[in-house]
Write a structure and sequence with these properties.
There is one protein chain. By secondary structure, the chain is an all-alpha fold. The chain has one domain. The protein contains three helices and no strands. The longest helix has 29 residues. The protein starts with 6 loop residues before the first helix and ends in a 15-residue tail after the last helix. The mean pLDDT is 80.
Length: 99
């Protein structure tokens, strides 16, 4: 059975696609400008691509921080906490540990 994608994972995947598209189009625009003989500098392309990657880096960092918190015994995933601990005073409401 396939697991359903979480919203945060889907959001990170879509942001990855947007960042890659922005990078590709930025380089294509720079190549087009140089191809037509533009002799100026292209800091606007660098700023656009850098801003997209900066935003992606920040959101990826927060996503991995969230994933780290979820995948620990003291984290927020109920099933993982019930399955790994010896149930010392923890009420798991019929959660059966599978060995």
């Amino acid at each position: 059975m396939r697991r359903k994608w979480t919203f945060s994972k889907l959001l990170l995947l879509l942001e990855s696609a947007v960042v890659l598209y922005t990078t590709y189009e930025g380089f294509a625009l720079a190549r087009l400008a140089v191809g037509y003989g533009y002799l100026g500098t292209l800091p606007w392309v660098a700023a656009t691509v850098s801003a997209a990657w900066g935003a992606y880096g920040a959101s990826a960092g927060f996503y991995y921080n969230k994933a780290k918190a979820e995948n620990t015994t003291g984290g927020i995933v109920f099933e993982a906490a019930c399955g790994r601990q010896a149930r010392g005073g923890q009420d798991c409401d019929g959660w059966e540990e599978r060995t």
